[in-house]
Amino acid sequence: MEMNNQKQQVLLVTGGSRGIGRSIAINAAKRGIGVILTYNNHPEEGEAVVHEINGSGGKAFALQLESANIGSFNVFVVSLSQLLKKEWNRENFDYLVNNAGIAQRTLIKDTTEEIFDELVNVNFKGVFFLTQKLIPLIADGGEIINISSGLARFAFPGVAVYGALKSGIETLTRYFAKEFADRKIRVNTVAPGPIDTGFGGGKGDEEHRRQIANMTALGRLGEADDVGLFIVSLLSDNSRFVNAQRIEVGGGILI
To answer: Among residues 39, 95, 162, 175, which one is catalytic?
Structure first.
């Protein structure tokens, strides 16, 4: 149910048009949070999520964002500011979830500098500089959640750069929490384990999926909502003293 425009909390989730990002957007809206989601190349997917939220009584909008294009961030911030003022009569928002990312499926010996740079730009550099640009717009007492991966804790062949960058995101989270502490902005990391989405070709053959599922204590792959619902649960006073933490949502994989 839509709340008063001046009082409704607002979430910005990057990469909110599919998978975990979509789940975050939809479940946040169900809790009465206004949603702004970003998409990269597929506006129809972003608008589909917006249509679903608005059709259920929520309030959502989609903005285009290319996470690897750092030079576009100033224009994005202007568009975001205009949207906040027009639709919520606000100059700031409450929650940022840095969810947008790209996966890797190359062995170290096959990883080119081009592949390396693209992974860095989206998964680390983009997160750093987008947060830097957005921090003046985040309300005091708000929260930032950075999406990491179980691959920052355990290793599989073919994802070396991705896993290393996610380890960097987890360290960066602690620095964000330290430097933004004077404004009481909490910063945490959520690290999904094996989630059954199409991210990076994640829906592999049935035998591979079964092998991964058998590595988890719960004996199954996760679903997008397993992560999305948990992240939304962090966006409340129920988690008001959780800060600078890394929380893995992986069903107990490789414990």
So the answer is: 162
Domain region containing 86: 10-249
Q: Look up 95 and say whether it is catalytic.
A: no
Per-residue pLDDT tens over the stretch 196-226: 987 754 456 789 899 999 999 999 999 999 9
Task: Provide the 3-class DSSP secondary structure of residue 49.
Answer: helix
| CATH of residue 197 | 3.40.50.720
CA dist 147 and 149 (Å) reads 7
pLDDT tens for each residue of 122-164: 999 999 999 999 999 999 999 999 999 999 999 999 999 999 9
Q: How many domains does the chain have?
A: 1
Answer yes or no: pTM beyond 0.70.
yes
Would 5 be classed as within a structural domain? no
Residue 1 lies in a domain: no
Specify if 3 maps to a domain: no
